[in-house]
Protein 1
Amino acid sequence: MGEQSVDSPESRKENRAELWRAFTLPVIIGLVVLGIAGVNFANGLAEKQSQSALTLPSCEVVPRTDLVPDGGTLFGVNLDWHSKPLATFAKDLGHKPAVSVSFTGFPLTSKDEDDLEQAVQQIRADGHMMLLTLEPAAGLSTVTEETANALAKDLDRFNKEGVPVIVRFAHEMNGSWYAWSQQPQKYIASFQTLATAVHSLAPGSAMMWAPNYGGGYPFSGGAFEAKPGTAEFAALDTNGDGALTMQDDAYTPYYPGDDAVDWVGMSLYHWGAKYPWGENELPEANKFTDQLTGKYVGANGDNSLLPDFYDVYGVQHGKPVAIPETAALYAPAAGGEQEMAIKQSWWKQLFDPSVHQQFPRLKMINWFEWDKNEVEVKGRVDWTITNTPMVREEFTSALPDWLRYGPSQSCQPQP
């Protein structure tokens, strides 16, 4: 997660480590044993716990093209599973989330597969589809036909168990903080290898390409930044002036091609007005749409050199656009604006009727539902919208009718 050149490499590693520790699901496993995973929630009403699995319809594999809603936008969540199981979030929200964000290393270990299976059970009961973020921490060379095919076979099994999967592979590849960063040729080849396997072996799964928001590009100083004199540097120097700056295209050199990409995505957060972060501040007017379209000029700088991400990849390339993660910073220990004002201001930008009208290809928005310590703030940030009763009430009341959620009824996995 991050905004512009917000996160240090250490912060991003810590954030992803926390996400993965939560994803190991020790709490969820206990919940499954108790049968809580079988409690389905839809439209504010829990289904009867005594419902026999035999009465459920058989799970069907939904073709990847049908994962894009004809009208409206999928609403999902990046959830801290340690603090709140998916069933509780669904009850708080009043709807089953259409998307649940998960993280895992790649290639998958046997433990990874077991943990993902547990997540699938939760999502089938109280959600709909998984947005699976794959992190090849050992480098892009680990992506081979063999490892890609193995993943695709797992995905096909998850699909048959009632959970479609959208794979967000090696996200934020245009950053400089990951082992897969700023290696455009290797990244594209790896993405294409994985996409070939998924498209041929897992018809109920899709591929998402998700760079980091380009404000602050090329994010100099990261451990994995492209070095002058290398092939990577030359490929990223899109204007040929011998330097990497914001005048170079922050996205195009990393694009794997229309045949490989099913969705495009970009996480957009409100961290505050300007770096360094930590003060509780209201979002600037139109900040969300300005960042999505490369028009942001404000307290945190002039980002107007950036391409219009929505137009280039949503309209011109004809792809559904996702906001895989979003939220607004509220630091309880800091002064400034109040929690309600900050978060409400941000969700009003997300849910403004003009957004639905102006961006019909915006097909997914996922809220980052975490209360955690952030390195940049040197303290706790509460990103959530369901933990504080008053915020939850206002948020759920503000949900527009063009959002789409998970189905009201679960399904019985195929044998």
Note: The first helix runs from residue 9 to 23.
Protein 2
Amino acid sequence: MTAPRLADEARGGRRKVRPGSIAFAVCGLPLSLLGMAYALAVLYAGGLLSLTVIGLPVLATGLLGARQLGRGHAWLMRTLLGETIVPPAPPEAPPGAFRWIRSNLSDVTAWRSVLYLVLRLPVDLLAFVVTIALPALAVWSIVWTVIGDPELWLAVTAVVGALIVLAFTPVTARTVMRVHRLLGRKLLGPSTSQVRVRTLERARTVAFTAGTRDLRQVERDLHDGTQAQLVALAMTLSLAADTLDGDEPTGRTGALVARARTQTDAAIAELRRLIDGMSPAVLDRGLAEALPQLTGQAGVPVALRVEMSQRPDPVIERVAYFCVAELLTNVSKHSRATKASVDARVVGKVLRIQVQDDGRGGARIGAGSGLSGLRERLTAVDGTLGLHSPPEGPTTVALEMPLRI
């Protein structure tokens, strides 16, 4: 569709009055009165009881209800006015009563819904007047001049005034509905900061996914291309060495071929280590299948416990795998531990991994143990790192990551 046609359709849409505008103006006034009453009741009760034990829970519950009322008003606006409002992110449901109260009291969407309920009443009053009351009065004036017996100047004035009101009713109705749409978009939809956060989260997801895909492509190219060529070279050198062994002693030539073969074998081993470090093949079967192999290669005996009811995203699995690998390396190199344990489980929508060892404690983030790098890696996927390492040990590191990036 061309740009001029889109512009013409947009102008045509602005000239039309949606049939739902009348219904929105009729039902809007009683709804706005109820909404205003609810908002004032929530604010009054919360403020009045704020000095008591039940004040904050009452206010938190009222804000949660305001958020739900905002969703209902957004649905009504979409149904009658055709205004699609992007729903804000759902509220968090943290465990514990205190965290639940704090989460609701700090819910920006709920407070913006309260402000919408307060500001909608004057707009609805104006919409009712210009959409219902004034046109009804204009029609009544015309009917009155027909069935009544007013004086000529009064009848002419009433008819002309009524026709002017009816002529401008579509314009005023569209203007008031445009104010309603603007109010709904600004207060019932996500805020500018929330939209930016969503945009950045989508960009981060795309970047992580693309990065993982590119790494897998490089890994396949190295595995199927470079490594295969090096293996073929090693076989050729092996055949050359066997041929030289069957001939007369060749001296320096045989030594150089043997040396080249040894270097080729070392290059193949290093390339395999590099490929496995970029994208471990065992992760193709999932983190639950990769952890037993990882813990089996640790420098100390590791007790592993895995409970995963669902598989995380590949990006999350990759981050978790390398974090556990780094922690087990720290255990082997720095802790002087004789044993360790890894507990990985899925709790709700969160992947929790706990790595513990019986070695000396005193580990600190930023003390050269690599924990600060792990924390930064976890922060990139909205994860957290917790550390408990008293001087006498043991050391426990807790990792938490969302299942979905």
Note: Residues 1-15 have pLDDT under 50 and may be disordered.
Protein 3
Amino acid sequence: MRTDTPLEAPPETSLQTLPARRHVAVDRGRPVLDVVVPVHNEEADLERCVRRLHDHLARTFPYRFRITIADNASTDRTPDVAASLDDALEEVTAVRLEQKGRGRALRTVWSLSEAPVLAYMDVDLSTDLNALLPLVAPLISGHSDLAIGSRLARSSRVVRGPKREFISRAYNLILRSSLATRFSDAQCGFKAIRKDIAERLLPLVEDTGWFLDTEMLVLAERAGLRIHEVPVDWVDDPNSTVHIVLTATDDLKGIWRVGRALATGALPLDRVRRPFGDDPRDRELSGVPGGLARQLVGFCVVGALSTLVYLLLYTLFRLGTGPQVANAPALLLSALGNTAANRRLTFGVRGRDRAVRHQAQGLVVFGIGLALTSGSLAALDTAPGTPSHGTELAVLIAANLAATVLRFLLFRAWVFPSDSGTTTDDDPRNTR
């Protein structure tokens, strides 16, 4: 049995990004998979669960494996049981940490492991072990970077009480609404990660408790890494010792901390981004400018939202003023928001560098749009009779569509040109 001092963080790695995904090289001298079982005061269940896991892997896993018991500061007989399993089973290793914290245990063991694929699962084995091979297979093949078990997938089969069901769904709903996550189940204790990903991702993760894997998933998703989800069969352990209220409080604090760091750009996610060329969307196509399709989609979405905002503002201002007076401030306010949204979402420009210049150039584009819409209103005024409010809106929509096409061309060629030296998310300098 080993006793290791918990690491504050894995050794700092090169800022160069990851190589393209490849099938894991199988080395007969080392395990391909290291399954970590973090435990704290689990003397009653530890031996039964580890032997069951060992038997399953010995029967079904086609490569060498290791099971690492990560005992984090247990005060009962857990260290003795872990040491006994270490002696009895060749593929089982016990590691003792003197500080409590599941996240700290995972960080320490994953940092020390030589296996190219790392996984962890709760000691109660609530998740059906038949999902273990589907969990790690995409990582071994090179298809994915991380993998998670999901109890909330449509084909999952879950047995648990209404209280835990509500808490789990509420937590994942908070994650989706606050951090815009797309993975379905952050809390399932059944996850895996490639070693090369963990080496670059773990130094960015601050949490040492239950929030570590959620934080790791959020950062991985924001960095553009591929997360594979496996529907699982899961039966709740009624004897679980997790303190729900304390854990939920810590998780909410973690969500706030990560959200603030992402909003301020404090996390260097370019350190773990995939290289240019690994994503087929980054490959150059003959006759198609790089990123054009994605930029068109982003610009259309931002444009649609900006048009709705503009029409609402125009309708509001029109209640007390004439059409020309209402048009100018409505278009100005929507144009400022449009430029800011396109800057970040469509053209991927990050940081404050040249932000004022971009807004100034956006105002020039706004002036062109103002001329088009104001001219259309002036032409409408020359028509016989008094046009209805619906007619005004129809004319303005047509004028805005014409201005939108011109706006995109000016944004792409003049305001946010790809060769301007401005750092963008699509810039290869951020992915090499």
Note: The beta strands are 2-3, 33-39, 65-72, 92-97, 117-121, 146-150, 157-159, 190-194, 227-231, 233-235.
